[in-house]
Amino acid sequence: MTFTVRPISPAEHLAHVRSRRSVSFLQTPAWADVKTEWRSESLGWYAGDQLAGAGLVLHRPVPRLGHTLAYLPWGPDIDWTGGLTVWFPPLVSYLRSQGAFAIRIAPPVPTDTWSATQVKEGIADPEVTRLTDLPGRPDPVGAEVTRYLRDSGWIPQNPEDGFGAGQPQFTYEIRLRHPDGTARSEDDVLRGMNQLWRRNIKKAAKAGVEVTTSAGGEDLKAFHDLYVHTAERDRFTPRPLAYFETMFAALSAEETGRVALYLARHDGDLVAATIYVRVGGYAWYVYGASSTEKRDVRGSNACQWAMIRDSLAAGCDVYDLRGITPTLSAEDPHVGLIQFKVGTGGEAVRYVGEWDLPLRPILYRAFDLYMRRRSR
């Protein structure tokens, strides 16, 4: 089979997304409207007149270089189990013709998976410091994709801690279906959680924590105030309110119910808030915030449980708690993140990660130097 790659309209792209069981929200045409600082385009892979795959490309201009980095976050949406030699050459040819000096992709393909039990045992073992010290369950498709990219000149961009400038390589996910494809029940998911998580969910309910959902609007300001408070406490740089307003406007316009705000209140006080995104059979916990006060009422657990229940009700296959670092050392400050998420049951997943293909090596080296200097 031979493919050609050419631009498609947002409407054609959205029709493709809707025809799939799921596609990452970062590969929907609406995401282009969120990343306003990038030039964007939707591309389609055609076999004759048949659209077989699609991808959202974000073109990042680099000062003084006159060319762009072409970035496909968590994509493209193609058949990764097929021969990649038919999918990638037409993409490379097209983006080269559009002035890209390099292409960056983040294939939505796992390479290894670790159960919650393995992760907990690893944390308890002083000789284990990283997930990769444990024997994971390998994925042959991920291994083949990795081999193809390496042999084809792509360069891995995966930092040691799992968090780079783009998408996390390690995530934590809860499977919402049994291996035979049947849906799990709420009770079954609860049984998969550890005792502390079950206790905290019950504690939140007993304390009178109420979780409501919102399509954004005025509630976004309340979320953002709590999010900024969380950023100050946990020492990270928060995004501006305008970013979230743009996100809700774009995703909501594309599909009703695609994005939602979950707000946990206790006696009228906002104690936790989260942002939830769903595309087809896949749901994500994208952002979270919590109050330093009233942490004992467990608003964060209440929000998570509400999002998981809604994912089950929607018939989702996966609830994705997003990025973790691969550290399991008790001395690493990041270990608390995986400890919180592992309590939900589920599994830790390593993906192929982000890879760059230099198309103009001199410009790519200049870009790499620019990024290194900027990160100092």
Can you describe what's shown?
Belongs to the FemABX family. InterPro entries: Acyl_CoA_acyltransferase (IPR016181), FEMABX (IPR003447), PG_Glycine_Bridge_Synth (IPR050644). Keywords: Acyltransferase, Cell shape, Cell wall biogenesis/degradation, Peptidoglycan synthesis, Transferase. This is Aminoacyltransferase. This protein is an alpha+beta fold. The chain has a domain at 4-106 and 354-374: 3-Layer(aba) Sandwich (Aminopeptidase), CATH 3.40.630. The chain contains twelve helices and 16 strands. A nine-stranded mixed β-sheet has the order 7-6-15-9-14-13-12-11-10. Strands 1-2-3-4-5-16-8 form a seven-stranded mixed β-sheet, with helices on both faces. α7 (195-206) crosses α10 (299-313). It is globular. It starts with a strand and ends with a helix. The model has no long low-confidence stretch (mean pLDDT 93).
Which properties best describe this structure?
376 residues, Aminopeptidase, 35% helix, 27% strand
